[in-house]
Amino acid sequence: MECYKFKRAQAVWARGREEEMNCELAFRAVIPAGAVELHLAASSIYRLWINGRFVCAGPARAAHGFYNVDEIPLSGKLTQPENVAVIEVVGYNVNSFDTLDQPAFLAAEYLQGGQVIACTAGEGLNIHELKQRVQRVQRYSFQRAFAECYRLRAENRSFYTESAWENPQQPLNLAVQPGKRFLRRSVRMPEFKRLSAKALVETGRVDFQPIMPKPVLSWETKSLGNTLKGYLSQELEERLSDEGQSMAFLPSQTALPGQPFPLPLENGYGLYELPFNATGFIRLQVSCQHPCTVYLMFDEVLLDGKLNFLRMNAYNLFKYTLDPGCHDILTFAPYTMKYIQIAVKGEAVLEELGLVEYKHPPVPRRVKLSGDMELEKICRAARESYLSNAVDVFMDCPSRERAGWLCDSFFTSRVEHVLTGECLEERAFLDNFLLAEKFDYLPEGMLPMCYPSDHNDGLFIPNWAMWFVLELEEYLERSGDRELIDRARPRVMGLVDYLAPFENEHGLLEKLDGWVFLEWSRANDPDVVQDVNFPTNMLYMRMLEAVAALYGEEGLREKAAWMRKVIRERSLQGTFYTDNERRTESGLENPGNCTEVCQYYAFFTGTATREEDGALWETLLRGFGPRRRELGLYPEVAHANAFIGNYLRIELLYREGLYQDVVDNIRGYFAKMADLTGTLWENDTPYASCNHGFASHVIYWLAGIYGVEEEKPSAAT
Which of 31, 59, 473, 520 is packed most tightly, with the most Cβ within 10 A? Predict the structure, then answer.
């Protein structure tokens, strides 16, 4: 963490509108050629254009009240004597897991020879509202801010390219936004590489039926207007979900040969496939002789050969109303997809379609796999899953959430160290949890389940806070960064103090508040996670051991040893560990619930060992795994899911040096994912996200088995 101070720039926004939802402004300057740098910070997100060409987007996220400053060299971009530089900023001003609910602003200054030549709240940088973004639209998802909807007007085109452009509007009345704390960006700028569509899968006609109110996603009806901010139904200018559900797609051709562009469309559509499930800003070039409307739909997979823009519990449908002419369109925020469907109401020609990728820059190392094609494909999918989920914080997925989740980060951080030899992004990720002065809506001592994010509904996962401590323990071993560990002590001890009152007469956590979460399986059903959940207590025991190791708290080490004894006595029933006990009038009773992931938690945390639980170990080793469901083995033990059960399983095999079993399990669990999307998934089916950051952990195991080598520049992706 390094503080930053602007030379002259101040944070500004349109007066009285800094808390307005989904408000977009454009900051324009004319910059001379030469060695010029742009330094800027923004809330919520920005993108930069030079002479009508996209340059970059940001910023890197930080804790509440802190803002990272990007320092962008522009020399190679300034191709004219006078260059038009436009910074577009959208202030969302809604609570989300992706961007923080903080007032909108931009602080920016252009420097040449160390001198400021234009800056906010100074000369040379003018602020405009083009009024192209439709402001009152639906949220994109529960976890992210707004969907995108634009009315692109012909008179605004020269704004981005003509230095002599004259503003036909009245100047905005600006106000300085004081009290911002700036940090120098500590993680690398992402890669902005163009990716073209691979193939045109299908074309056909669109039947634009009368738009009627249609079903909406559950979070929109249950949470919006209560703990979730956004525009209510009666406030909307456009209701994209109704329009999308009022279209019927009638295919006329499939598996089309030849070049996919240009594609003339008249009340028609084209379904395109990307080379893999990619993340970035969707870009398309559309030309039309008459006004028309273009709809942009996308998703990671097809369901029965069709694209369902609602599959991810998000609105993967955007709308662009176009004046006649040629339009270069780029989504403002990044999204994830393998398939893109363009529908045109009216008549237009799709000239080009693809993505500007938004992901971690190329990494210096790769796993040595000696030509095993299947493992190579799985490793590439894991690598892509890492790169797209490690832009500024370790994310769960780059699609519906883009959230910095704990537990996920425990696994993803290992991959960073393998691929880069550094802990650069992990330090930034952990630092955000330490920089925050407090976590609104959460009880004292508890950590957010993901951060930077807003949790207005008060939801938290106590288990994920425990993983924070386990990650600190490994981070110290990887980095030697004792300074961060010492700064984390108040947070860690605060968590210990929070959890202690939930201990029952046996020293076990009982009836924890919040969302007791283990994984997406039977193990997470309400009747299993309460009242005394043994996997949670196993994790708590392991957390106390980590606290003792980090800070010399020997009393906690003794407490953990006692907990281990009690858990073994109460959870182990016959061969398997059971998941929970319920509180009754006569005391605690064990209902006999038994899940696969509970067994893995037991061995992962050291509650069980191969020496003490040899029969169970052999059962797990030979009777469980990728084919158990198919073979119908041990039906009384509820199946695990991808995260974290299958990962804990492979981790245990890896720890024991059973490398052939590790490789066999990797093939069994992940080959189908790599084949279908080129990324690795949240679940063991394509039900939810098909690109999850933790899934890149496959690289950690393969690197440990086969070793790593320096990446060849030509092979970097």
Answer: 31
pTM: 0.96
According to the model, what pLDDT value does residue 167 have?
Answer: 74
For 385, list phi and psi in degrees, rounded to 5.
-65, -35
Q: What digits encode the pLDDT tens for the residues 470-485?
A: 999 999 999 999 999 9
- Say yes or no to pLDDT of 149 above 80: yes
Q: Which of 298, 307, 150, 146 is nearest to 220 (CA)?
A: 146
Q: Which amino acid is at 672?
A: K
pLDDT digits (tens, 9 = 90+) for 673-713: 999 999 999 988 888 999 999 999 999 999 999 999 998 76
Strands 532-533, 580-584: pairing is antiparallel
Is the backbone peptide bond immediately before 44 cis, with ω within 30 degrees of 0?
Answer: yes
Q: Which residues contact 712 (CB under 8 A, 6 or more apart)?
A: none
Residue 286 has pLDDT above 80, yes or no: yes
- pLDDT, tens digit (0-9, with 9 covering 90-100), for 155-205: 888 999 999 888 777 778 899 999 999 999 999 999 899 999 999 999 999
Tell me the β-bridge partners of 58.
46
Picking from 28-32, 119-123, 369-373, which range would have the lowest pLDDT averaged per residue? 369-373
Residue 716: the pLDDT is: 41
- Residues 6 or more apart from 607 whose CB is under 8 A from it? 538, 541, 564, 567, 568, 571, 577, 601
Strand arrangement of the beta sheet that strand 126-128 belongs to? 53-58, 45-50, 82-91, 23-32, 126-128
Buried residues in 493-531 as b, exposed as e (16+ CB within 10 A): eebbebbeeeeeebbbbbebebebbbbbbbbbeeebbbb
How far apart are alpha carbons 717 and 710 in whole angstroms? Answer: 14
In the block, residue with structure tokens 């300074």: 483
Give the H/E segment covering residue 24.
Answer: strand 23-32
What is the per-residue DSSP string for 183-238? EE--SPPPB--EEE--EEEEEEEEEEPPP------HHHHHTBTTTB-S--GGG-S-
The confidence score (pLDDT) of residue 717 equals 38
Find the Cα–Cα–Cα–Cα dihedral 289, 292, 293, 294, rounded to 10°.
-20
Beta bridge partners of residue 268, listed in sequence order: 205, 344
Q: Are 314 and 688 in contact (CB under 8 A)?
A: no
Q: Are 107 and 180 in contact (CB under 8 A)?
A: yes
Report the b/e string of 370-397 with b at 16+ CB within 10 A: eeeeebbbbbbbbbbbbbbbbbbbbbbb
Amino acid (1-letter code) at residue 46:
Y
Neighbouring C-beta atoms of residue 409, cutoff 10 Å: 29
The phi, psi pair for 59, rounded to 5°, reads -95, -175
